Amino acid sequence: MTHASTPRPEVSLPVTAQQAASAEHWMAELGSLLRDLENVAGASPAVPAVFGAETDNQVIQVRLGIASSLFAALQCKHPPTAGHSLRVALTCSAWAMHLGLDELLRDHLEIAALLHDVGMIGTPDCILAKPLSLSAEEAAVVAKSRQMSLEILRHSCSAPEILEIIEHVNAWYDGSHDRAAVAGMAIPVGARMIAIVEAFDSMTTDHVYRPAMPHERAMSEIYDCAGTQFDPALVLRFSEFRAADRGAVHETVAWRWLRSLDPELVNSYWELNCVPSSLQQPNTDALFQAKLLENMYDAVVFIDATGLVTLWNRGAERLTGIPGTSMRQCRWHPELLKMADEKRQPVTEADCPVTGAIRSGVQSLRRLTISGRNDRPVAVDSHAIPVSNGGGAPLGAILLFHDASSETSLEQRCQSLHEKAIQDPLTQVANRAEFDRVHEMFIAAHQQLGMPCSLIIVDLDRFKRVNDTFGHQAGDQAIISLATLLKGACRSGDLVARYGGEEFVMLCADCDNATAARRAEYIRKALAQMPQPTMDGRTLTASFGVTEIQPGDTPETMLRRADRGLLTAKSQGRNQVVQLGTGAAADRQPSRQSSSAAARADNPCLVQATLVTPVPVKMAIQKLRGFVADHEAKVVRTEAGRIELELDGERPGRLRRASDRAVAFRIDLRFSEQRGKAGDEPNGVARTRIGVGIRLSRTRDRRRRHDALRRAQEVLTSFRSYLMATEEDNDAPPRGAAAPAPPVRLLPTWLDTGS
């Protein structure tokens, strides 16, 4: 059964003062929450909601009406999948607005995005909650979930366009996946959009098997699949959408999703019974207990009687490297941590302390070995405690891990630095001099252990207006408020410093880009909701730049990259978080040194390489601008397809020898764009090929060739990280690429706009 695809006429109903106040309340809340649809704020013992449990339900009811019961069933079955679907739907809505799609297509796209994974209801819990790799049979069950979504919706959805989108979300653009019946432009545009957005959301969300990727790395992966899995034209448009100022678009999305929030209007369409949930007073004892558990240094894990993990505190994250957001609601298994007994024999599920405690009701104390960060074995004292109700029925078990290794942890060393920090007299956080001293040691310690660390830089928005309007005392109080929030968000090993004026920096120990961005988002929202008594109860906002240490970084390049993120946030409307950088995992392969012939006097290049990046040349130039800005390089010459840069090598620092001095390099870059075939579209996939040659800028530095060669290798590693490139053999063409196109002509003023 079908219905005519005609837009519904706008219905004008009288709005009472109470209804208007309610709509204004929700609009104010969601207007700020929609600033960045990719981020999920805060951490909680349960799977985090997109906006909040009550707000999520309101938004879903507005968009789905009576079909919201299907989404509620998905929430009950697997909350992470439901949260993923809501984020995908909101991002698709904003992107469709950016593309100027018509209202009817946006309706179909939003509903399909919300319900495309409803088939997960039929997937067994043992598969959804499994923290380990899926077997071939289990993967086949998951692959059928989209078909199950289609079968479920066939019984209730009367719009064939929505069903068609859901049917083809899994189709690859080149038709190579599961022998899809359609390919290329025959795939509905809504399905092609959802495929890109859900891949981006999945890559930038924490999972048990891997942490969230930095946004730039996720976009590089999507570019790498353009023309095979994804529509290359839409990949370009999605990249442009993410780079654009999305503030006005998000306000429009908020109005679109909230204009029918009035329960009477919703009931007139769907006959829903929208009963608001009663507000409950917070349980003070529960809040104290939750705060205690989250801040314990030892690992604390709660496992219920069915084997699902319900709590994974920060101590467990620190010890194992697995984020709590990905472990909760997953099934516990000793193989997850590669648990071994006193004889170094793997612990089986039958011999697991958790299984024994639940089955026997008896506590157990054992010395075990588990896999810590970077698969490093860690000796722990495990304590399994059974939990039962008043009648003796088992409810689950508590598992405690105490690090029994003799080594002093990185967090403890960084904490000692934090305690000795020289404080800023106004805010009682570290001052700039102390930050400069600690920053270099902080990076060196993390690089030595192969652990990620991040930097957050934050600046109050329109602070001069605060001083001019309310006086400097109000300005000081505003600075103190921000410092208090930053100190409250600190974890063991972190450092907060006042960098200057109303600007602060925060070093995040053992923290990747995505986690640091979520913490910054939590601080941003908390500040925006905090009334300032010295400003007549008004609130403040702040902008944030976030980055993670990446291969080839120095303290200076890391700080400049975070500052670029802050300036981007300011230029895009303020009151938002912008993350930059590809992260510690960006260096996919080691640099190859040039041959001895390349180091002779007739060819003074220290390092030569041919790099390939999956992004088109336009985006490669944007990444190059970031490299130039962060390394303070100078553009010496530009011509058709060729750029020559000059930059200093490492500057001497406190951790280097006093005899070290900077070595200047000339970097010769040659760009060409290559296009392969994407389905029926020749020239559908654009990749950028870059020839790199690094040589000494001053002849007197040749006597220090060994040291210069090491530094040139580090410069190449950093350049490859910024460009998200891989190194290819010079003797073989890139995989799947056609003959190189003529070099791209670059205007001499290509670096004059933006940085």
CATH superfamily of the largest domain: Hypothetical protein af1432
* CA-based shape: globular
CATH topology assignment of the largest domain: Hypothetical protein af1432
CATH class type of the largest domain? Mainly Alpha
Write the layout of secondary structure elements.
Elements: H1 17-33, H2 53-64, H3 68-77, H4 79-99, H5 103-115, H6 125-128, H7 136-143, H8 145-154, H9 160-167, H10 189-203, H11 215-224, H12 232-243, H13 247-258, H14 263-270, H15 284-295, E1 299-304, E2 309-312, H16 314-320, H17 324-327, H18 353-360, E3 364-371, E4 377-388, E5 394-403, H19 410-419, H20 432-449, E6 454-460, H21 463-470, H22 472-488, E7 495-500, E8 503-508, H23 513-528, E9 542-548, H24 555-571, E10 577-580, E11 605-613, H25 617-631, E12 634-639, E13 642-648, E14 664-678, E15 681-696, H26 705-723, E16 726-728
Parallel strand pairs: 9-10
Antiparallel strand pairs: 1-2, 1-5, 3-4, 4-5, 6-8, 6-9, 7-8, 11-15, 11-16, 12-13, 13-14, 14-15
What would you note in describing this structure?
Helix 24 links the parallel strand 9 (542-548) and strand 10. 41% of the residues lie in helices and 17% in strands. It has a 6-stranded antiparallel beta sheet with strand order 12-13-14-15-11-16, with helices on one face. It has a 5-stranded antiparallel beta sheet with strand order 2-1-5-4-3. A 5-stranded mixed beta sheet has the order 7-8-6-9-10, with helices on both faces. The protein has 4 domains: 17-270, Hypothetical protein af1432, CATH 1.10.3210.10; 286-403, PAS domain (Beta-Lactamase), CATH 3.30.450.20; 410-585, Reverse transcriptase/Diguanylate cyclase domain (Alpha-Beta Plaits); 596-728, TATA-Binding Protein, CATH 3.30.310. The N and C termini lie far apart (55 Å). It is of the alpha+beta class and 755 residues long. The protein is globular.
